Amino acid sequence: MEGAGTLADTFKNASLLLNSTGIVTIYTVPTASPGVTGTPPVFPTTTVIKSILVCNFHASAATLVDVGFVDYSVSTTTVMDLVKEKSVAAETTVELLTQPLVLEESDILKVKANAANQVTITVSFLEITKGDL
User: Fold this and answer.
1) CA 131 to mean position of chain CA atoms
2) N vs C: which end of the chain shows fewer Cβ within 10 Å?
3) How far is CA 95 from CA 36, 45, 86, in A?
4) Tens of pLDDT along 28-78?
5) For position 94, what pLDDT does the model report?
């Protein structure tokens, strides 16, 4: 089978306007699947989160931001905190990571803000996909 045993590295990003004060999924690491008729297989993937940028575009109010992830190998529902109540001043952009973050298959990156419609989040990441199931 062509491509079996190879790795594919793909740089991507995900952006989101936080339009509520609830916890929101911004990215989920793909889950391996052999595929079914009409859909291609999904190969095992590890993701390296390189950057999490928060932009508070409100003219005068600071916003508190939480970032966490569901470590699927530990729990399918528990959010592990990475950043808790980080204050982002009005009209500023903040980088939340100082080192890369590795997420494994099925892990979920989640974000939350204390005010709706004041911040955008942009996550830049590298998906490393193994070419066989």
Assistant:
1) 22
2) N
3) 40, 25, 11
4) 999 988 888 888 888 899 999 999 999 999 999 999 999 999 999 888 889
5) 98
The torsion angles phi and psi of 79, rounded to 5 degrees, stand at -90, 120
Rounded CA-CA distance 56/96 in Å is: 13
Q: 88 - beta bridge partners?
A: 63
DSSP codes of every residue in 1-57? -TTTT-EEEEEEEEEEE--SSS-EEEEEPPPPB---TTS--B--EEEEEEEEEEEE-
CATH number of 15-28+52-125: 2.60.290
Report which of 107, 101, 96 is spatially closest to residue 69, judged by C-alpha positions. Answer: 107
Of the candidate ranges 16-25, 69-78, 96-105, the one whose mean pLDDT is the lowest:
69-78
- Per-residue pLDDT for 133 more than 80? no
- Measured between alpha carbons, how far is 57 from 118 in angstroms, rounded to an integer? 6
Q: Which helix (H) or strand (E) holds 85?
A: strand 79-88
CA distance 131 to 133: 7
